[in-house]
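Show me any protein, fold above all:
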Amino acid sequence: MDLVEFARVLLERTANGRADWEVAGDDSYAIRTDQAIVVIRSRDSDGRHPFILELFDRDQSLAEDLHSGWVDNVPNAWNQALMDLYDSARRAAFNVDDLMESILEATNGDD
C-alpha cells in the first residue's frame, strides 16, 4: 500500500468514526499507536494547502511522507485526498459534530 491509498483508507475510517485523531500541534493532527504515529498537517500552519502526511515509527523517526503540491503547473493526483483527510482529522480531533449537536440541543425550542 502506498501513502496515497493509506490516506484514502484513513479518510474512510475517519468518516466511519474508526480513527481516533488528536490535536498534535499547530494545524497538525495525529493518530498514535504503540508501533507508529501518523500526522496530517498544513505545512504553513494556516489550515490550507500545502498539506503533508507523515508516518513515523515508534522511535518517532520519519518513515514516509507525502506532500500536496504541483509539478509543472499540474496538481498532484493526491492533493484532494490530503485536503479531505486534513479536514476530517481536524473535525474529528475537535469533535466538531458533537459540539454542533450540543449547541443544537441546547437551543432546541418550540419553532
Remarks:
- Residues 23 and 94 are 8 Å apart (CA to CA).
- The chain has one domain: 3-106.
- The mean pLDDT is 94.
- Residues 3-106 form one domain.
